[in-house]
Amino acid sequence: MNFRRTHSPAIAGAKAGFSTATAYRFEKDPRLPEQKKAQRERRRADPFVDVWETEVLPMLKAAPGLRPIAIFEELCRRHPELGSGTRRTLERRIRAWRAVNGPDREVIFRQEHPPGRMGLSDFTEVADLGVTIAGQLLDCRLYHFRLPFSGFEHAHVVLGGESFVALAEGLQNALWALGGVPEQHRSDSLSAAFRNLGADAKEDLTTRYEAFCQHYGMTPTRNNPGVSHENGSIESAHGHLKRAIADALLLRASRDFNDLPAWRAFVDEIVGRGNARNAKRIDQERTALKKLPVRKTADYEEVNVDVTTSSAFTLRKVFYSVPSRLIGHRLRVRLYDDRLECFQGATHIVTLRRGRAHTSGKHGHVIDYRHVIHSLRRKPMALLNLVYRDQLFPRRVYALTFDALLAGAGERPACRAMVGLLALAHEGACEAELAMALQVALDDSMLPDLKALTERFRPKAMELPVVVVTLPALAIYDDIAATIGEAA
User: Fold this and answer.
1) Is the Cα dihedral 244, 246, 248, 250 positive or negative?
2) Fewest CB atoms within 10 A around its CB: which of 74, 104, 124, 220?
């Protein structure tokens, strides 16, 4: 238009980069092409013209949270002539009406996360991954720690629930792997950390969690109950981590692991790959973190228990067997998420796998047949109605063998034979090999022969080497003494 002030349409168009035809077209109509489009009109009659004002709007105003599908179903019930093809029309009209007349909605305020200020913790379920340990489905979850600035992550496989022990162990390992401590620690309303007494409760921290945070110099914080998006920096990271683990499991072509440490190492490797990608930002944030304390703090619960005449103790509705020499003693037990460390005074006695009570409320059992086999050999009939008989057998094939012995030999011979097999597995250190032999016998529909198996797994006798010691003559010592004297 500036060129048109001094030039003809053709010259002005050429100088502006237009063709002559376009220049003359602008002379007639200077509007832009999108301004010439006519507004799209309705192509068919409005199916809700008769019910919008009288029925739909009253429902929207009376119940602002009502879903469009619920309104549509109610209209179809009242007016059967409305077809299913009108659903999207109603949804669009309701959405447009709410944009103008609807209530105010909650606003999400995006936050900046300065380096070194906050670390977040949470637990997440991983049951849908279908991980198995030695063929048995593993019931576990993940403790997840993350720094929102750098994206540093740490994950720890947890066997139990969201307990203080699981929180303390996972968080402490994360801080020492990170090499520093953030100013604040944020979580949701975990009962392991907060008593959740109510909005007016000022002292809402659990004593152990408060002491833990004081040891590391962190300020404990939490999001508002029921407002998960306040922890969005870790809630969204849950999905990314679980998808990465799921992809790695697909590439591995197997979800079965030999043992729990192998599964934990697999998770650590996946998390480590993510931290390697964020190495520069993590190194940058480490400079803003506070120093770690001189030593770690306790990440376990400590309980005193008494060993009963059953060579066991009961803790948290779980029956644990221990060596019978501890009967009558009081043990100091350190309770971790996956194990129990038992002490007699300051002396470590035994480490036990941690058990869990049944969801039905029944007691659980963690039994090691080696603890009681010496007494069971003297009283083999005790095996028949033993309370924890099923848990006594170290492998499933031993239980199947006992069932076969009961059916084929009777109660007393079956108990004697089964106790003998357990004793053989213990004394011969051949539990796995004996299990394979028992499985072969079951597959052949035969009862195991204790004498033959004892002979088979008996330590092989070896001939002792003949050692001939030649004693020197006593006179040689006089010669040695004389030689030493001359040299002096």
Assistant:
1) negative
2) 104
Residues with Cβ within 8 Å of residue 314, at least 6 apart in sequence: 305, 320, 363
Taking alpha carbons only, the member of 375, 377, 419 closest to residue 401 is 419
- How far apart CA 154 and CA 144 sit, in angstroms, is 6
Torsion of the alpha carbons at 322, 327, 333 and 339, rounded to the nearest 10: 10
Q: Are 314 and 367 in contact (CB under 8 A)?
A: no
pLDDT tens profile 42-96: 667 788 888 999 999 999 998 888 999 999 999 999 998 888 888 999 999 999 9
Q: Check the CA dihedral 178-179-182-185 and report its sign.
A: positive
What pLDDT, in 10s, does the model give residues 236-250?
Answer: 888 899 999 999 999
**Which pLDDT score is estimated for 247?**
95
The pLDDT value recorded for residue 376 is: 92
Q: The whole model's pTM is what?
A: 0.68
Residue 488's pLDDT is 55
Q: Which amino acid is at 104?
A: D
Contacts of 168 (CB under 8 A, 6+ apart): 208, 209, 212, 297, 298, 299, 300
> In the prediction, which pLDDT does 200 show?
43
Per-residue confidence (pLDDT) for residue 201, from 0 to 100: 41
- The structural domains of the chain, ordered by start, are 3-33 (no CATH), 52-101 (no CATH), 118-286 (3.30.420.10), 301-366 (no CATH), 370-456 (no CATH)
